[in-house]
Specification:
This protein is an alpha+beta fold. The chain is 39% helix and 17% strand. The longest helix is centred in the last third of the chain and has 24 residues.
Length: 287
């Protein structure tokens, strides 16, 4: 639901996709740069809202930034939080793209190209954020789509497995708001009868076989059949992957990608034959 709301809001036709800025705001947990370590996780969570508001206020002093922003709080494996924030600010997005291009020409790594720098870094640190925070301006519609996926917390999902389950802020205090946005920016919550609301994931049993787990399965009897279709789709993906592993010692450069909508498995975005041809050519060159 979070993904759907963010996608609808950011996809409005009057908003140029390249005008978006995506920031990952982290904390200097141990006070390595500031000399002021955070006392505990609870204090960090309580400060996130004020820190983001202060940073947005500073950005508004220099850029034409309105209420077109959305932020989601996530947690590292340690339990300490960070904030993913996306804001519509074409001027800042252009500056960030230009700065990243200049850093790239100087030989900087991908991460070094998006680390906060200059005045933006100064403002962020003065608002309580850490030096390892990043910011990047969207380059295309595809980049915007990628930011939305990251923001919704679904970007590290493998086929049928929720790899980012640890990103949920489980250590947050009660009534903590994970999703925040500018006033009136996000559309209201609404249910979609075509969406089951169930997460289907897999895991290895002690015997080494695959097990299918339906997490938070819907209590609606009308959703039972779609969930079963999703489970069968996941089983189909497992069988295909196991067949590939049985025939070859290693997977192709990218594993087969198959998407399931409403429990119905779609065809490959890129066929196995094409992927395996690429893999074989690579193996021949290596040999």
């Amino acid at each position: 639901m979070t993904f759907a709301r963010i996608k609808q809001a950011c996809g409005r036709p009057e908003l140029d996709p390249t005008g978006w800025v995506y920031l990952v705001l982290t904390l200097d947990r141990d006070g390595y740069y500031t000399g002021r370590p955070w006392p505990n996780v609870t204090a960090a969570y309580k400060a996130l809202g004020k820190q983001s508001e202060r940073l947005l206020k500073r950005l508004r002093r220099r850029y034409a930034l309105g209420n077109q922003w959305v932020a989601v709080v996530e947690a590292h494996r340690s339990g300490w939080p960070h904030m993913n924030l996306m804001a519509y600010c074409p001027e800042l997005a252009a500056e960030l793209r230009s700065e990243a291009a200049e850093r790239e020409r100087s030989g900087s790594t991908k991460r070094e190209q998006i680390l906060l720098g200059g005045d933006l870094l100064g403002h962020a640190m003065e608002c309580g954020w850490g030096r390892q925070s990043t910011a990047e301006g969207a380059r295309s519609t595809d980049a915007l789509a990628g930011y939305i996926v990251k923001l919704a917390g679904t970007h590290d999902q493998s086929v049928g497995e929720l790899a980012k389950v640890t990103q949920a802020p489980l250590a947050a205090p009660g009534r903590f708001r994970r999703l925040r946005s500018g006033k009136g920016f996000l559309p209201p919550r609404h249910s979609n009868p075509e969406t089951t609301g169930a997460l289907v994931r897999r895991r290895r049993s002690r015997e080494g076989d695959w097990e299918i787990l339906a997490v938070n399965a819907s209590k609606d009897p009308l959703q039972h059949e779609p969930i079963q279709r999703a489970i069968r789709a996941e089983q189909s993906c497992i069988e295909e992957e196991e067949d590939l592993l049985a025939r070859w010692r290693r997977l192709p450069p990218l594993p087969p990608i198959r998407l399931a909508y409403g429990g119905k498995l779609e065809g490959h975005r890129d066929t196995s034959e094409r992927r395996w041809a690429t893999s074989l050519r690579s193996s021949a060159l290596d040999g």
